[in-house]
Design brief:
Number of helices: 5
Strand content: 5-15%
Shape: globular
Number of strands: 6
Radius of gyration: 20 Å
Distance between the termini: 35 Å
Length: 214
């Protein structure tokens, strides 16, 4: 157990590592500028996962959850002349969108039977219909769906059921799934999750219960 002092040290080390990475990315960006390659180079900065960094009394990434600390990861893109500086995308995007984005910008065909979409239309300010949810999975253990307001995740073994109102509870401190008043909303989010799993060909879809309370 780290204890309060141990967590403080962990947080300090983590922030130091983030600062180190930022500095090295800055060196790469400066080199591209100095070589005159910036307008020919799409730079994507992201991560495969986050870190709890003391939130909810946890550190690392190995807890079976989908807190924003773990799944809301950095995504910064730079392409002078194509992506305007300061552009902010509010639509929910995912790492599955990166491959089609890269193919789109290099002029290569984007496969039709993939889960992601090119972000180019959003990055360049075009008015398009976009998905209204984000989806995440933890191997064969759990699945999550997040809409603008709610986050829902479910795991069958061990059984985990969680629903958070991100508008009223952005730090995800109050799990609403066990409150009978929210049973209808839990079922609605569970059905939306199943719809996404079915559409994506998720191998767990057929084995998961239709009723989250079953």
């Amino acid at each position: 157990l780290l204890g309060p002092e141990g967590i403080k040290e962990y947080v300090a080390i983590y922030h130091g590592m983030v600062k180190y990475i930022d500095d090295q990315i800055g060196r790469i960006i400066d080199k591209l500028d100095n070589l005159g390659l910036a307008e020919e180079t799409l730079v994507i900065f992201t991560s495969d996962h986050g870190d709890m960094v003391g939130a909810h009394g946890c550190v690392g990434k190995s807890i079976l959850s989908f807190y924003d600390d773990l799944v809301r990861i950095p995504l910064l893109m730079r392409f002078p002349g194509k992506i305007s500086a300061g552009t902010v995308i509010s639509e929910p995007v995912s790492q599955v969108d990166l491959m089609p984005t890269i193919l789109d910008y290099v002029g290569a065909p984007v496969p039709s039977r993939i889960h992601g979409r090119s972000l180019r239309c959003l990055l360049e300010g075009k008015n398009v219909v976009w998905r209204d949810y984000a989806f995440c999975q933890r191997a064969n253990m759990a699945r999550m769906i997040r809409t603008e307001r709610y986050k829902y995740f479910y795991a069958p073994r061990p059984r985990i059921l969680a629903l958070y109102d991100l508008k009223e509870d952005p730090e995800e401190n109050h799990n609403l799934a066990d409150d009978p008043k929210h049973a209808r909303l839990v079922r609605k989010m569970h059905n939306r999750l199943l719809e996404v799993m079915a559409r994506d060909g998720d191998p767990l879809y057929r084995s998961w219960p239709q009723d989250p309370f079953a």
